[in-house]
Write a structure and sequence with these properties.
heterodimer; A: about 500 residues; alpha/beta; Rossmann fold; 3 domains; six-stranded mixed sheet; 24 strands; disordered C terminus; B: about 400 residues; mainly alpha; about 0% strand; globular
Chain lengths: ~500, ~400
Amino acid sequence: MKVELRGITKRFPGVTANEDVDLSVSSGEVLALLGENGAGKSTLMNVLYGLYHAEEGEILLDGEPVTFESPADALAAGIGMVHQHFMLVPVFTVNENLMLGNEVTRGPLGKLDFEASRERIVELSRRYNLAVDPDALVENLPVGVQQRAEILKALYRDADLLILDEPTAVLTPSEVTELEGIISALAEAGKAIILITHKLGEVMRVASRIAVLRRGRVVGETRPEDTDEQHLAEMMVGHAVKLVVDKTEAAPAEVVLSVDGLSVRDDRGFVAVDDLDFEVRSGEILAIAGVQGNGQTELVESLCGLRTPLTGVVTLDGADVTGAPPGDLFRLGLGHVPEDRQNDGLVGPFPVADNMVLNTFNWEGFASGPVRDRDAVHDNATRLSEEFDVRTPSVDTPAGTLSGGNQQKVIVAREFTHAQRLLIAAQPTRGLDVGSIQYIHARIVAIRDAGAAVLVVSAELDEVLALADRVAVMSEGRFVGMLEGDRIDRNTIGLLMAGHATEEAR
Amino acid sequence: MTVDDTSDGRAPDPGEHPDAGGTTQQESPTPPFWRRAFDSLKVPVLAVFSALVVGALLIMFTDEDVLYAWARFFNDPLRALERSATTVWEAYSALLDGAVGSPAAISESLLRATPLILAGLAVAFAFKAALFNIGANGQMIMGAMFAAWAGFSLDIPGPLVILASLVVGTLAGAVWGGIAGVLKATTGAHEVITTIMLNFIAGFLLAYALTTDAFLPSGTGNPVSKPILDQARLPRFISGERVDLGIFLALGAVLLIWWVLERSTFGFQVKAVGLNPHAARYAGMKVATITALTMAIAGGLAGLGGATIPIGPTGTLTAGIIGFLGFDAIAVALLGKSNPFGVLAAGLLFGALNAGAVTMQAETQIPVDIVIVIQALIILFVAAPALVRAIYRVRTGDAESPLFTSSWGSG
């Protein structure tokens, strides 16, 4: 099977998402489609999958021109897509999910034949080495297994070309390794695979060919053996980039944040943070690594005054701030970059200027008593947009209309200005493009060097490795390892994250 | 399925397709003020127009002469058309005449607009915090009840008793709105439910009060309160016309609420809580307190609106004194798009329609109810902007999302 895209141009009102794109992929090949957020990767794949119709260009299947009116046509032609956000019904079993839309029936009443489909699933999972229990409820499965079920769903529908959209975004390091194995195995078994990603490492490891997309155009095609990460990053961004943050040795000084015996409950009432003790000093970055959902969110919320701890004492510069409201903490010099920037960090319809004072709107300088000083807010935003390189048409533009990277820069600009003592940044670069990641990392290091204590929570190993002076690995509400200096390395952290005890990791 | 690889799953925004982190932002610059104002006026104005057109059809086809003329259409087609046009023309002329045709008409319109503007603000202000205040009616009743009580029982000099009346009316409304606010803030009870219930309680409380000696003149069984003392009545400012200083209270409230929303730190918090309570909480705002306060302020506005009625030309308190004004206020807020000046315009329009309807019925025997239907149609068209856009083929900004939808999901 060979799928070709020729001269695809896809326009949206006011914008060209893809321009004259040529691409091809054949059986047994893994084509990596690399590009920053907004480069047009998903749009292109949605054209191929029949969700969009291109204004110009054609799709050829084994040399024959085809048109896909809908995903159903694409599926029938053997093209399957695994979306970033899984399309599974959580309360159905794997078997039921796979059958959905493709029901096998038996008898005159159309009884669903779960036996037949189960056999097929077992056979497929054996052939492609995709271990999934067909009778497990999807909601009970780990994310990595859910993803395998998604892949199985495509295979179940006889897909010969699999499109994987940012498949590793939600996986743990060990799951990523497994997935990379699965991708290679599928290619060897004769499937064609298109891998959409902006992660350079995985491209280098699994791709047989790499196409780089920038602003809707293919700016280069290469093979992993002919290139390196540095070069790919530059193709992606269009200018030279530094992949490694310039960072001097940390010079930790006095203790800023001290946590003693902290336990916190989650929304369901379970203990999510279990008796933690740690300190963060001025001038150092402590990174908390760990698979999401191991208590990091609750820990950060309790440190930022958003969740009352069950037990324990938190002090900031020696003052007891256990359970203090966020407003007080900000005035004591806390900056908090929340994990979910869309929901918790910004008021989308508010202009950029107002978002830049969202938690300082009533401070001296931005208000006198109950009266806001709109000129000061405006000037502040103009200055910060420049300083933090926020690309916005104007500071009156609603923040919600900016790209993800620029939204995050708005939050970073706001928080970093009052993070005089402590910065807590949760997943500060999730979903951002290389350029923005590089920028935000540099800023985090700068605020450390200015004497703040920094706590970074991240599920991205690369981020932890780039930033951390010390690494705490969190699992099930506890720190299962605290690494410093030379002991910070990818393997050790990966093993600890996967739940291996410290001893074993050593 | 997302349109583009915005990995955080936002709605597709054509403005950010190319190279989101790059140098060329495609977002269109914010349009100038007049342009936005014009855009935001399109739907309300077209809605009013559409409602008048449908209203005209109703007037035509409920008139016996017109129906008779149409029945004989093939004998005399011109007459059918002529009768229709004449009937509608006469009706709408009378309506217009009664609304703005004379100083007396304008006076009546302003008088009727006053409580609508104040209660409309009550609904609009709450909505800024994503609270759907259905309870303006109950808050107005409480305001009217306490203001009337002060107005007939406090024998103190004129300006003081008027002030006292307005203050206790406002406070009574604020308490009534505040109850719903506190319940929402502390227990999460949805304000739609609690305010509806509080409307009933207020209504029956008023009915009960009008059986007690504190409210009734001695020796009568009629549920009509003691008359408001002369010095407690709101002063009139045009000799011979009934309109009183209440309209200036309404204007002042419009300016005040606009100022609070646009210029004060409190209004900033109200809007933040309304648009994104999560972000507001993360930014250290006290969401529960702001919710409770917003409802209390909204209730106070409605209470003030209710207070102006008994101490205005009405002069007494009766069980039906508020009627359904508090529900008309929801329509006013909706038509005014929750903008204080929009509420002012919508309140004036509804006041004028109500005043004009009386003249129309008197002069043309077309029932007052037709105006109620027209008001309902306006709301129907405003609430379905997609319909208006489809009929007139206009494009309006994205800000045209249906006004009240988000409230239901916010509980």
